[in-house]
What we know:
Number of strands: 11
Shape: globular
Strand order of the largest sheet: 7-6-5-4-3-2-1-8-9
Number of helices: 10
Bound molecules: S-adenosylmethionine, iron/sulfur cluster
Structural class: alpha/beta
Helix content: 25-40%
Amino acid sequence: MQLLDVVIIESSARCNLKCTMCPRLSFSPGNGDMSLDTFKKIENYLHLTYGVDLTGWGEPLLNKNLFEMIDRATAKGCWVHFLTNATLLNEDVAKHLVLSGVRSIGVSIDGATPGTYESIRIGAKLDRVINNLKRLNELKKTYNRTNPTVTLVYVMMKQNIHELSEMVWLAFELGVKNVVFKNQNVLTKPKDVTEALFLEDQKGILADAKRAVDDALYLATVLGVSVEFHPFESSGTTLCAPNPLRSLFITWDGFVSPCCNLGHRVPRMVGPEEALSDTSLFFGNIIDKPLDEIFLSENYISFRNAFTNGYPKECEGCNLVYGV
Ligand SMILES: C[S@@+](CC[C@H](N)C(=O)[O-])C[C@H]1O[C@@H](n2cnc3c(N)ncnc32)[C@H](O)[C@@H]1O
Ligand code: SF4
Ligand code: SF4
């Protein structure tokens, strides 16, 4: 019986980029990869989940044991997914990926021109990432595979909102069927507040931003690209996904948290001048306690109960609660 939809495992907390909006710039995630020994402590519970997402606050492709983790998770019958910056998706890695059981990947691209992309994704080259994705397509054809499917993930900010339509074109040219336009909703430093489009003081540029979205959505319909778009104004319904009642997050060094947003000791801006110093919440570490014991601990159960009746106080600094 599957009790969970997904177990999110931070395969790596290291990264080869320094993206300007990334919370990694505001805290020390530790410079580690999850070890196989730590992964094996989770493996015994994987029959209880439908899927495994190997994403955390780092770049999964840096973990040299990633493909072994994928093999072990698929052997337990789980679908496997992760998000990547795709800079390390060279021929060898792409071939491994196509032949592995990975069902889907999300590729983060926050600009459709080299100028915008490279001013945000510091350390990456857009042309190289595009070539990596083209090669992945070729390899899928060569090996007659449809997986992994690719979704492009775009964090919308003031500095890149004008390139949404070009991003839809890029997706179309790459044969990518799904694009996610998400808000920069994890705000950890003052610059994030000036870039986020859903805060009150961005109202001045909101009309332009909405026009950019409308144009992109129209183009997507014409080209047959499906777009998941996160609104700039609270929809009144939460975007908290995955649901912490049906998922959990485990940091590279074994700490168990309800979600990736609570899974690191990160400061969080809740307005232009207001910051919460630490928004982490952990219920134990699998290195010294079995995962089921942690999941069924009194504090964790109280958190989940609070979630069924609204939101636990720990979620109050999270913008997903407000639907943006
Ligand atoms: C932290 S990254 C980890 C995976 C991988 N390194 C990547 O870039 O795809 C996971 C996702 O978070 C997004 N992200 C980064 N900073 C963000 C922020 N401040 N608010 C919302 N999402 C953010 C990234 O663009 C990426 O899609
Ligand atoms: S590649 Fe991903 S983890 Fe690395 S800095 Fe960029 S968003 Fe953050
Ligand atoms: S609403 Fe709470 S559980 Fe959901 S992502 Fe935000 S902090 Fe995590």
